[in-house]
Fold this protein.
Amino acid sequence: MQTLLAKITSHRALEARWLNTLSLLEHIGARKISKTVCQDHPSLAIMEHFHDETRHAYVLKKMSEALGGENPGYLCADEAVSYFQMLDHSVCQLIEEHLGCNNTFTNYAFVTCLIERRAMALYPLYQKITKETLVREELEGIINEETNHRITIEAKVKKILSEGKIKSLEPCLTLEAKLFETFCGSLEKEIRG
Ligand SMILES: [Fe+2]
Ligand SMILES: [Fe+2]
């Protein structure tokens, strides 16, 4: 990922497209929260999460346009969408196998946990590598918020695991790592293009 990010950040136009893709991913995340656990009036923690992810999508898009002008394009938008959708679908299936039924909150908690872990591996690294001061500063705020999400959601997942029907997060982690690797493979190909 480090090499990939170094390549992306060495060209402004490329970094603008990358930021737009990150914005798309954050937007999908926010939309999923809205479509699932926000159907009724949600808890403060869920509402905060929804608000933050929407803000991340907005801030990342704003930076994307600051670097690349209006509509700078994407880096592997279809593959980014597929990463998220496949993750959500596979985790949902896995949970259903264990619980014998679909559980919206458990699905939300597990997918969020995986996404937050990925975000906390990716954003700090990206912040270290980018040469853009604006990006570094805005990422600081995003990282702080993702840290809070992670603490909240890890506690929820721990509680679900302690109930014993689902024994471990490991299979989900393996799944996410594979899907993210596929996404990175597409990015590499696109950059080499
Ligand atoms: Fe986010
Ligand atoms: Fe988050």
